[in-house]
Specification:
Layout (H helix, E strand, L loop, with lengths): L16 E5 L5 E5 H17 L7 E5 L4 H12 L3 E4 L8 H15 L3 E4 L4 H10 L24 E6 L9 E5 H15 L6 E4 L6 H13 L3 E4 L2 H6 L1 H6 L6 E4 L1 H10 L15 E4 L6 H11 L9 E6 L6 E4 L7 E5 L12 E6 L12 E2 L10 E4 L12 E5 L18 E3 L2 E11 L2 E7 L3 E4 L2 E4 H12 L6 E8 L2 E9 L6 H12 L3 E8 L13 H9 L7 E3 L1
Parallel strand pairs: 1-9, 3-4, 3-5, 8-9, 10-11, 11-12, 25-26
Antiparallel strand pairs: 1-2, 6-7, 12-13, 14-15, 14-16, 17-18, 18-20, 19-20, 20-21, 22-23, 24-25, 26-27
Helix pairs in contact: 1-2, 3-4, 5-6, 9-10, 11-12
GO molecular function, one term: adenylyltransferase activity
Keywords: Ligase
InterPro entries: AMP-bd_C_sf, AMP-binding_CS, AMP-dep_synth/lig_dom, ANL_N_sf
């Protein structure tokens, strides 16, 4: 299958390319001619190794030019790419178990790993029952012809679950449609520069800030996440020339805390077009403190582009691309029920009023485009009117066909060409407002953390059996929440569980603990009725429930 996303491998533009951040504070540059040649020589080596069109190739590589070249080499060989995160958030054994779970599902023809990550990859392959050794990137003597491609461009694995990862099947049609949507909504023009520190294994970093500009042979300034954490001002200085970026809300707040105005002396960011915000609930306070830091250097709040998306819809669903200050609202938390009107207590445009507006506030994520239809439905799948809370459903060519190898999720479902997201949301003044997950996962620092995994860990720490624990992801305005239902009257275990969850999820996840008998409701097949339990609790109808503060 031909694709504009890899056309540049045959027609590279010299002079433009990728500037990769070096550890010494400088940048290393390679143009598209060099990158295309290296990718096609690496493709030749992959083909010699037996990789064929339609195969899955898993990459365990740090963000460097070898990763860039190998990624496109897999595409040049006609294969499907599956990028796996380096061990940033997990210790060795947990990381190996996570990678092994991905490999078991992906069944790759080849696992590629760098020297520094080869031992992890080798152990994960053994754990997944795969024979052989990880393949080290190398180049053949000749450049390979770009091979015909199979149906799938990517396997995009959810990143937070160690027990049951799910690989989203992203077709070439999905990826092209979403990349075009991103470029259109961002106002991307030929010659624009993109700057990013986002990891390439995450959909926003990979598709939004890597594949989309490279397909257009634009200039990309690419940092690793650890570069950003050590020196966030380095990312901001990119916008003396860069026009586009994307990051989760915490990154903007982190800059406001860590960067001093004197570090930006002489900087002019007035040419900055778009600072996309997504991947987790958007905190208006975080945006405002960032805007106040950068405003003396030419930043405008109209550059903020709040957005909503998920891997199951390739990436982008909506973005507020209008030239206006983002709209923040505070819904009444006591009136949040599916199928019911959302009562708005306060609202304002981003500005000084936003300082301190953290818990309970949510920011609008724009109006859907015609080619990405978005509806809100009730529990029976019936479309709801504007202002009513329900589940967000996404259609159009960006909606992926499903999870790889028959994997399933309990909240996100694929039906009739649409993605039933498992996210709670509503429309207000024409914009989509997203409250977050209610079901099998929550977003923490851009990663999906699955409640089944948390249930297993809680059962272990508390000493309660797993069948006596149910965790629910709770949507709220501008916050992340979990409700823990435990079939017990004992409270001695609660302190240890709170501390474990704090270490795993951070301090910004609101936890509600409910104990009692007869709490856990299940379907006829034995699955927990998570949202039903939470809504009964909210309505005061869950008999025997006792909330522990």
């Amino acid at each position: 299958m031909p694709s504009a996303l890899r056309d540049w491998l045959d027609k590279p533009t010299t002079g433009r390319g990728i500037h990769l951040a070096a550890d010494d504070g400088g940048w290393e540059f390679r143009d598209y001619g060099e990158l295309a040649s290296a990718a096609r020589r690496t493709a030749g080596a992959l083909i010699e190794e037996g990789v064929r069109p339609g195969d899955v190739v898993c990459l365990v590589l740090p963000t460097d030019f070898t990763c860039v070249e190998t990624y496109y080499a897999v595409w040049a060989a006609g294969a499907t790419v599956c990028l796996i995160t380096p061990p940033l958030f997990q210790d060795g054994d947990d990381y190996v178990a996570h990678v092994a779970a991905i490999l078991r599902q992906a069944s790759p023809a080849l696992v590629v790993a760098s020297d520094g990550l080869a031992d992890y990859a080798r152990r994960a392959m053994a754990g997944a029952g795969l024979d052989g050794e990880p393949w080290r990137p190398r180049q053949a003597g000749e450049e390979a012809e770009v091979q015909p491609a199979g149906e799938l461009a990517l396997l995009q694995f959810t990143s937070g679950s160690s027990g049951s990862p799910r690989g989203v099947m992203v077709t070439w049609e999905n990826l092209e449609a979403n990349s075009d949507l991103i470029a259109r909504m961002a106002g991307y023009e030929d010659g624009d520069v993109v700057a990013s520190w986002l990891p390439l294994y995450h959909d926003m970093g990979l598709i939004g800030c890597f594949l989309t500009p490279i397909a257009r042979q634009g200039t990309l300034k690419l940092m690793r996440p650890d570069h950003f954490i050590r020196d966030p001002a380095r990312w901001l200085r990119c916008f003396a020339e860069a026009a586009h970026t994307a990051a989760p809300p915490f990154a903007y707040a982190y800059c406001a805390r860590r960067v001093k105005p004197e570090q930006l002396e002489g900087l002019d960011v007035s040419g900055w077009k778009m600072a996309l915000i997504g991947a987790e609930p958007i905190d208006p306070h975080a945006l405002e403190v960032f805007a106040q830091l950068l405003e003396p250097f030419g930043f405008s709040r109209t550059m903020f582009k709040p957005a909503y998306g998920m891997a199951e819809t390739t990436l982008l669903v909506t973005m507020d691309d209008a030239p206006r200050h983002p709209l923040a609202i505070r819904p009444d938390p006591e009136a949040l029920a599916f199928g019911r009107p959302v009562r708005i207590l306060e609202q304002h445009r981003l500005g000084a009023e936003s300082l301190g507006a953290k818990a309970g506030w949510v920011v609008g994520c724009g109006t859907p485009e015609d080619d990405v239809p978005v509806t809100i439905v009730d529990d029976e799948g019936r479309e709801l009117e504007s202002g009513l809370l329900g589940e967000i459903v996404v259609g159009g060519p960006s909606a992926c066909p499903g999870y790889f190898a028959g994997a399933e999720a309990k909240s996100t479902r694929f039906m009739d060409g649409k993605v039933y997201t498992g996210d709670a949301g509503f429309f207000h003044e024409g914009q989509l407002f997203v409250l977050g997950r209610m079901g099998d996962s929550i977003k923490v620092r851009g990663r999906s953390v699955y409640v089944e995994d948390l249930e297993s860990k809680i059962a272990e720490v508390s000493g309660l059996g797993k069948g006596r624990i149910v965790v629910v992801g709770v949507p709220g305005a501008g916050r992340k929440g979990l409700a823990l239902f435990a079939e017990t009257q004992d409270e001695a275990w609660i302190g240890g569980v709170r501390e474990m969850l704090r270490r795993r999820l951070g301090d910004d996840v609101e936890l509600t603990i409910v104990v009692g008998t007869g709490l856990i409701q299940r379907t006829s097949s034995g699955k927990p009725r998570r949202r039903y339990m939470w809504e009964r609790l909210q309505g005061g109808h869950l008999e025997g429930a006792r909330i522990i503060s």
